Model the fold of this input.
Amino acid sequence: MFMRDIKNLHDKYFRGETTHDEEQFLREYFLNADRTDDQMETGPLFTYFSEEASVTEFLKGLRADLPAVHKNKIRRIRLLRVLSMAACLLLGVVLLNRIIRDDNMLTENSVWINGEKITHIGVVRAYAETSFEKVKSEENMLEEQLRFMLE
Amino acid sequence: MKRIGTFIFCCTMLLFVASVQGQDLKINSIFEKYGKLKGSTMVILSGEAVRNYRLSVYRSITLQYEAPASDDMQQCLNADKQQARKIKEVIRNGAIRSGYYQLPDEGKKMNRYILFKIGDDQQATLIYMEGDLKSEELINKLFIRE
Done:
């Protein structure tokens, strides 16, 4: 193929009119042929894919050559990753359960008398006031302490 | 390797948070353990029901002061008072007879209190409350005779 045809194909490519076969031809051409000055900039565009394929092949080969010790290490890391995720999920469930349980306990207004639950708000308030009265000091704390010291 | 390190760090942090949450007040176990038993009276109030008292949570338990509840109460109070900001208590023969403890707010921007008293009838009352109520107001209500 003449240089003029290559140039036409090159221009056609940048107009987006080339077929798959024509693009394949351009890739092979730029991979093997010496580039002219005006092709120096666009040449790497065509060789990129074939170079990438060769790099991928090289990496695949490298992975296949990995010693058994490295493979075990990778397996261990994967296992560790899975276990960490499972532990996090479990922890999340436990914490969520705890929060929900605490919320239920704190938001439900009730009084438990001898194991029986009463939710009537008037009754609950009355028992709350009674319990508060029970912790009130009948005497001044200072007096109480002084009396204890003198006992 | 760096990603795994980050992941393990996150797990450790989660465990730390969980353990910190687990270190919350010991007296909670008293409510859970004895609140629904025969001979106990447990009050749980929150939200609108206690807003008038400038509180958001009010929990109390009244029960006969005898073993094993008495031992549990003493242990829990002794543990929780370690983190208290203010303490007023009466101790007789090494046991807390009455106590008032103001706890740190734990970032909730509200006051938290534990109140405890053993009455002459050997009934022990334990109260936990949290809310806007100022300690001075509470002390006035508790200790100043009207």
Summary: Chain A touches chain B through 39 residues (CB under 8 Å).
